[in-house]
Amino acid sequence: MRDFLKNTLATVLGLLIFLGLSVGGLLAIIIAIASRDTGPQVRDKSVLVFDLGTTITDAKRGSNASQALGDALSGNAGDETISLRSVLDAINEATRDPKIVGIYLYGTEDRSGGAGFATLKEVREALQRFRDSGKKIIAYDIAWGEREYYLGSVANTIVLNPIGSFELNGLSSETMFYAGALKKFGIGVQVTRVGKYKSAVEPFLLTKRSPESREQTQALLDDLWNELLTAAGQDRKLSPQQLQAIADRQGTLMASEALQDHLVDKLAYLDEVVADLQQLGASDEKTKSFRQISLKAYAKIADDKANGSAKQQIAVVYAEGDIVSGQGGIGNVGGDRLARQLRQLRQDDDVKAVVLRVNSPGGSVTASEVIQREVILTRKVKPLVVSMGSVAASGGYWISTYSDRIFAEPNTITGSIGVFGIQPNFQAIANANGITWDTVKTGRYADSQSTAHPKNPQELAILQKSVDQIYDQFLTKVADSRKLPKAKVAEIAQGRVWSGLRAKQLGLVDELGGLQAAIQDAAKRAKLGNDWQIEEYPKTRSFPDRLFEQLGNDAAAKLAQDNPPPLPDPLTTQIGKLQSDLNALKVMNDPLGLYVRLPFNFRIN
Fold first, then answer.
1. How far apart are alpha carbons 423 and 461 in whole angstroms?
2. How far apart are CA 204 and CA 404, in angstroms?
């Protein structure tokens, strides 16, 4: 025991020295932790504060070690990231809570956060229930945009700063093409694919969209835009046609114009909004503002109330990000890791049903198949329902097949039933710089995976045969699981993306609804009545786990950062998009080199 204590003390002191902290710093930490409240408290006549720029993810995300340590030392709640279920539980609890008198929705200049439209739709419906209960929602922004307005339009009162602006100019999707640059630098790209709409490879081959890609993108944007116009219009008593006319007339309106067109209810400065909120709730003597609690803090209270003691569980499993072979990392879906999780839940007698929440553009064929196999095996033992998030396409659709029921929102992006393979080579750029290769081999195709030269026609034919076979398997799986004629599936596949609304009409999904609807359906299928509770997977790791995994010099550096990063300029934004595109290529690790994925740089603005 003496050695244990001695070694433990030495380790702690070593970490403090490593981080540049003193023993006094340790005492300060202990005092701060000891003096900290046991948890957030709700006072009477409080307003729930919801930042419209909050990043809403499917699964709960833990910060890395240095972030967690910084939050622990500063007392901050961390970044503005929160899970969808936490948001929904918080709003639903606030609807019932007599201490919460209203919700304040506010926008910030930083638009880097947010969520997909399908996620926002479910949050929007929760906000509507809150408003319909008789409680008030006040929304304020200095620069309203479409995504913020999609939520904010549910408010009883929408306020715009008198010097502010209102953007209502429609949705767009801008794709960056690299074919010209690759040719200039002597990098060759060969592609094998099936599906005339499978446009994921086009940035490497073309300098602009193909007609098929433009057709499907236009149809998808039209569906998403119509949903936004219809939803916002209903709450604002404006027809979609009226809103479209505003968008086509000028797109960006000054404050007085937005008021004239009834997009907002009043023009006011922030201090005037605060005064209104003080009238709605109670004043806070310390802050001289209104009595309030943040969404993230209130979500902790709602989570505690939602966690029951029922033995029977419904497991909500999140498949969020690119699907990759192996274990995967942060921000993607490791095929082996998710399959193992499903296998454990299948064998757990306390888990009576599984909801697989899919928010993925797809990825590795091999990993998708590994996951789908566990979906099939799990469904044989207990109900398994799929809830599609903002994007559940290609490989994301592959793993959704063979579930008992598929739920999607009208503005979910899904489908994209197609397959492609991509083979780069660096012969031209290497030769231009004096680099050559000389190969010795024992078989005709022994060097067929080399990037030193282009594939010859025979090698491309072999790869195309593999792509054709995988595509046929994809069609068969969809036809079998959806009880559709294979010929019909072949007609609506072709790599084409569909909105959730169109997918429902085509038979690719069963019901229009969000995560909550899928959970209720799973409970009904398992015949659980009201005696059940939700458990979410994968589990987030504790602070000590994250701290000791990633502790390093960057922790001390980040602790010293007092000022938030500046808002990105347009050039930095474009460079960031390029970096994101290149990073997407890094997760393309399928052992067969075949992928079922949306275009890796598909974005909606």
1. 13
2. 38
Q: Which pairing describes strands 46-51 and 55-57: parallel, antiparallel, or unpaired? A: unpaired
Name the 3-class secondary structure at 203: helix
In the set 213, 368, 387, 394, the catalytic residue is: 394
| Active-site residue flag, 198 | yes
Catalytic residue among 121, 135, 136, 198: 198
CA end-to-end span of the chain: 60
What is the identity of the amino acid at 569? Answer: D
Rounded to a whole number of angstroms, the CA Rg of the chain reads 26
More confident call, 78 vs 127: 127
In a 3-state reduction of DSSP, which class is residue 590?
coil
Q: Which spans in 84-143 are helix H?
A: 84-96, 117-132
Q: Which of 538, 533, 526 is nearest to 404 (CA)?
A: 526
3-class DSSP assignment, residue 391? strand
State the sign of the Cα–Cα–Cα–Cα dihedral 276, 277, 278, 281.
Answer: positive
Q: Where are the beta strands (DSSP E) in 479-519?
A: 497-499, 511-512
Distances (CA, A) of 128 to 92, 169, 237: 10, 25, 15
Which pLDDT does position 577 carry in this prediction? 54
Residue 6 pLDDT exceeds 60 = no
For the chain, the average pLDDT equals: 84
H helices of 206-313, in order, are 211-236, 240-249, 255-260, 270-280, 295-306
414's CB contacts (< 8 A; 6+ apart) are: 388, 391, 392, 393, 396, 397, 408, 497, 498, 499, 500, 503, 508, 509
Answer yes or no: are the C-beta atoms of 408 and 186 closer than 8 Å: no
What's the Cα-to-Cα distance from 342 to each of 92, 148, 463, rounded to whole Å?
29, 36, 32
Burial of residue 555 (CB within 10 Å: 0-12, 13-18, 19+) is: buried
The mean pLDDT value for 46-59 works out to: 92
Burial 350-371 (b: 16+ CB within 10 A, else e): ebbbbbbbbbbbbbbbbbbbbb
pLDDT band at 80; cut points 50, 70, 90 = low
The SS3 of residue 563 is coil
Question: Residue 183 has what pLDDT?
Answer: 87
Phi, psi of 137 (to 5 degrees): -125, 125
Angle between helical axes of 23-35 and 65-74 (0-180°, round to 10): 70
**Cα-flanking dihedrals φ and ψ of residue 469, to 5°?**
-65, -45
Rounded to the nearest 5 percent, the helix, strand and coil shares of the chain are 45, 20, 35
Q: What integer pLDDT is reported at residue 554 of this predicted model?
A: 44
Tens digits of per-residue pLDDT, 35-46?
A: 444 567 889 999
How many whole angstroms separate alpha carbon 238 and alpha carbon 227?
14
DSSP at 174: -
The answer to whether residues 187 and 406 touch, using CB atoms and an 8 Å cutoff, is: no
Per the annotation, the verdict on 586 as an active-site residue is: no
Tell me what pLDDT residue 169 has: 93
